[in-house]
Amino acid sequence: MKLKDLLQSLGLLSVPRTSGSSGLQVFVPIEPIYTFEQTRRITTFIANYFQ
């Protein structure tokens, strides 16, 4: 499964982007209603699941 497909299945838009020295990143815009901890939990879950 591709990362884009996984994020789409969760209803999340994703956009690849480059940042120069950091290489390739995946930008996922989210509503500013979530706390840092909530965002960190879901991104950690998605990264572990995808791995």
How would you characterize the overall build of this protein?
The chain has 51 residues and is an alpha+beta fold. Helix content is 43%, strand content 16%. The protein starts with a helix and ends with a helix. 0% of the residues are buried. The mean pLDDT is 88.
Summarize the structure.
This protein has helices spanning 3-9, 36-50; strands at residues 15-18, 24-27.
Question: How are the SSEs ordered, and which strands pair?
Answer:
Blueprint: H1 3-9, E1 15-18, E2 24-27, H2 36-50
Antiparallel strand pairs: 1-2
Radius of gyration over C-alpha positions, nearest whole angstrom: 12 Å
- Overall pLDDT confidence: 88
The secondary structure category is alpha+beta
* Count of DSSP strands: 2
- Described by its quaternary structure, the protein is single chain
Shape verdict? globular
Tally of helical runs: 2
Low-confidence stretches: none
Helix content: 40-55%
Short key terms for the protein model shown above:
single chain, 51 residues, alpha+beta, two-stranded antiparallel sheet, 2 helices, globular
